Amino acid sequence: MPLNIAEDPLALGAFADVKEDFAIFYSSRDDKGVMWCPDCRAVEDVVERTFAPPEGPSGLIIYVGQKPEWKTPANYFRGTGWDVQSVPTIVRLRDGQPVGQLVEDEILTRLTSFVKQ
After folding, report:
1. Is 111 domain-assigned?
2. 107 in helix, strand or coil?
3. What domain of life does the native source organism fall in (predicted)?
4. Is 1's pLDDT higher than 80?
5. Is 66 exposed, middle or buried (0-12, 13-18, 19+ CB in 10 A)?
6. How far apart are CA 99 and CA 22, in angstroms?
7. Helix (H, G, I), strand (E, B) or coil at 91
8. Please, which residues have CB within 8 angstroms of residue 14's CB and are 6 or more apart in sequence?
9. Which of 63, 99, 104, 113 is deepest in the core (most CB within 10 A)?
């Protein structure tokens, strides 16, 4: 399935609002379309290859903000309902509840098996 992008990430209150099988948390992009986080850029191709095929799993990309916004402990996605502490993070969801996650470089080595679980 194609990846979807949360148009208004702050309108999502918690994982229960995500209808896709996976929530993918990335750093936001600048005005040139580049993510500030090098780890996010490093996994972007493998994420796209995994989720893009029509028979692939469904995923929702959620951008967490620019670097100063993300680095504050008060960032919306670090708090209640989300508890995301690193980007990139991919969370597997079942019935609106998180049931597993991959963080940072784990995505490069474990994503294929993770989505098949």
Report:
1. no
2. helix
3. Eukaryota
4. no
5. middle
6. 10
7. strand
8. 81, 82, 96
9. 63
| Domain region containing 38 | 4-103
Whether pTM exceeds 0.85: yes
pLDDT tens-digit profile of 28-40?
999 999 999 999 9
Task: Indicate the number of domains in the chain.
Answer: 1
Pair 96, 30: CB distance under 8 Å? no
What type of residue sits at position 55?
Answer: E
pLDDT digits (tens, 9 = 90+) for 39-68: 999 999 999 999 988 888 999 999 999 999
Cβ(93)–Cβ(20) under 8 Å? yes
